[in-house]
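Hi all, long-time lurker, first post. I run a small reading group and we've been trying to get comfortable going from sequence to structure in the token notation. Rather than ask abstract questions, I figured I'd post a concrete chain and ask someone more experienced to write out its structure so we can walk through it together at our next meeting. Sequence below, copied exactly:
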Amino acid sequence: MAGGELARESSRWRLVVTALLVVVVCAAFSPALDVFISGDDFEWLESSYDVLRDPLSSFRLENHFFRPLVKWSYLIDYLVFGQNAVGYMITNLAIHFLNALLLFWLLKRKLRQSLVAAAATAAFALSPLHSEGVLWAAGRPDTILPVFFLAAILLLDSWCERRTTNLLVAFAVVALIGIGAKETWIVFPFIATVYPPLVWHVPITTTVRRLAVVWIAWLVYVAAFIVVPAASGSATAAHYADFRILPAFYKTASTVFAFFGLGFAPAQPWLLAVAILFAIGCAVWFLRIRDGFGLWALVWLCATLAIVAPFQVSVLRHNYIPLLGFWMVLASICDQVLVRTKGSRWRLAAAAMALAGTTVVVVEAVALQREITDYRVYGELHRRLCQSFLQAEDRISREIPLLLVDRSTFRGVEFVADRVQGIDKTFFVRRNALWQLVFLPPLADFLGDPFEERLVREELNTGEHLPEKLTVLYFNDSGFALRPDLREVLFAATSASGELPSGVDLYRFTVE
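-- Answer (accepted) --
Happy to help. Here is the structure in token form:
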């Protein structure tokens, strides 16, 4: 067969593998399309509305987080899909599929076996260990960021091969845009800087010089969002982290244990020893066989695990970026084994890997369906909240204040947690949130017209009386209802104490 025919055959095979990968991932996630938005989604939507009128508002911190790309993604979703929650899930899945394709392209460039690249990509894409990042729109910071990580590394790999200025500029632009996705970006300069020396044997001094703009951005970022706030006594994005070393190591060891499909084990010294031995063993193996890409993948895994290690709660979205490194490490090991095995042993090794890879993908696909079921349950509670509010919303006057009386006893978060079928998850509990799920203003704005009017909370100063005219919105386990009969009772109670009773809040619609 001529060389050209071989090339065409190779291209066709890669196209078939890529198409098969897309079909498998799309089929596995198709039941998730009707997962309703939930929890923090309403707050992120609330922060995005002003971006249309004032694009610079996207750079405002939200709960100490600098995530303009997330705000823009929510704004675009709202402009395109409005209140149709399917659109938000389509966006999440599209971002996830893009990451899977970028991972596949990177592995195809660096490995010799396309099927190994496809199997590792499928295992990552279908993993239930990062389900929160994909199945919950508010988890998308963890999926948006690796789009820029992987795209920038692909550009850097091309630059190492061709050494053209355009590729280096493109790399810098993509890398810098990623700053706006999530604070985990601070590990990227380290990951990127070790790539050319390990994979392409480019001198480290040359690499640092060429990547200087990324390091300058890193210094500015750390100074602006960590050093200055900390020096002034303000909280940073890491305000809920626990920086004790031993708990961080234990959590990391448990996470690595789970990456092998063995479940999240409690902190144990032997678990830590196994994780350390795994990392050292991989490093020694890659150094011995001079596999620079495998060694770099291990750096990715360790660096991204380290950045999330201080956060004691093992939220699944934090696994998204480390899992990319984990499957790159395993793919590199499998690829090298096949390359170095000859004759009948090669066929035996290939068959064993094919069986193991198929088993992993099938088991993950089944487990993923249980995860999807969990998030559908969680989303359905929010759908009920929205439907209940819409039944009362048309009768709420925009001219007078709104008094919310929350007398619900239902605990939505506990209800969902008791029905978790897949991997144990931590659902956020917020004080004064309806059914512990969402606050009223973000819910009302999402269901109304946030570009025309907003619902804002008003403080009642001590000694003040309630306005004479107001709408009383009563909320209990049955949902929302207008209760004008409660106005006099609430007015008397507020007049006597000078403050609103417990579970009662005052709101007003304002014109934007």
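A couple of things your group might point at:
The first helix runs from residue 3 to 29.
Residues 1-9 have pLDDT under 50 and may be disordered.
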